[in-house]
């Protein structure tokens, strides 16, 4: 917009804000100052916001901002436009995130899942060797039974005590 269009647009927006919110418009001389300052504010703080968006922001949340008897000013206008722009930015980021394709899903075979359980069981054993005391995970009990290292899941406690007493370095790796 050129300077004349900007001045006309600023004046029209301020009048629209007055109609929407009921905020008092300053006297003629102060109104000219407000228009001039609002033009600068639009260029500095709201260069990417058009007239329709400003009107929308005031229709949707401008009526909830209390003016406490003050004349319309830039601070009152900011109380509506700053939250509006924050919400617009959040929604824009959310929309961008939705455009990204979801990560590729990988379906593991039962052997791969069992190998994960073996790795986790080995990591658990290494932690208890270092003195970390924790409950034996269910997947560790399951894989020990499946691999024939114990007959029942309830035997896992004595299995680990036995391995520790024998100073075994690993469960699943060759010593």
Structural class: mainly alpha
Number of helices: 7
User: What's the number of extended β-strand segments?
Assistant: 0
**Total number of domains:** 2
What share of residues is helical?
Answer: 55-70%
3D shape? rod-shaped
Question: How does the major sheet shape up?
Answer: none
Unreliable sequence segments = none
Secondary structure blueprint with pairings:
Blueprint: H1 3-21, H2 28-45, H3 51-61, H4 74-99, H5 110-129, H6 138-146, H7 156-165
Helix pairs in contact: 1-2, 1-3, 5-6
Structure summarized in a few sentences:
The chain has helices spanning 3-21, 28-45, 51-61, 74-99, 110-129, 138-146, 156-165. It has 175 residues and is mainly alpha-helical.
Protein model, in words:
With 175 residues, the chain is mainly alpha-helical. It folds into two domains: 3-99, no CATH class; 110-165, no CATH class. The chain has seven helices and no strands. Helix 1 packs across helix 2, helix 1 runs parallel beside helix 3 and helix 5 crosses helix 6. The protein is rod-shaped. The model has no long low-confidence stretch (mean pLDDT 89).
Throw out a few tags for this protein.
mainly alpha; 2 domains; 65% helix; 7 helices; 175 residues
């Amino acid at each position: 917009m050129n300077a004349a269009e900007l001045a006309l647009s600023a004046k029209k927006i301020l009048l629209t804000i007055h109609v929407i919110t009921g905020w008092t418009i300053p006297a003629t001389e102060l109104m000219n100052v407000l228009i001039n300052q609002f033009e600068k504010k639009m260029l500095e703080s709201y260069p990417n916001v058009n007239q329709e968006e400003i009107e929308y922001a005031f229709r949707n949340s401008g009526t909830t901002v209390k003016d406490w008897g003050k004349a319309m000013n830039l601070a009152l206008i900011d109380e509506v436009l700053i939250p509006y722009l924050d919400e617009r930015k959040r929604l824009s980021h959310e929309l961008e995130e939705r455009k990204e394709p979801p990560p590729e899903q990988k379906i593991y075979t039962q052997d791969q899942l069992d190998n994960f359980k073996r790795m986790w069981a080995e990591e658990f054993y290494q932690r208890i060797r270092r003195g970390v005391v924790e409950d034996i995970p269910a997947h560790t009990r399951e894989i020990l039974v499946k691999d024939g290292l114990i007959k029942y899941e309830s035997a896992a406690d004595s299995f680990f005590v036995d391995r520790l007493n024998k100073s075994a370095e690993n469960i699943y790796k060759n010593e």
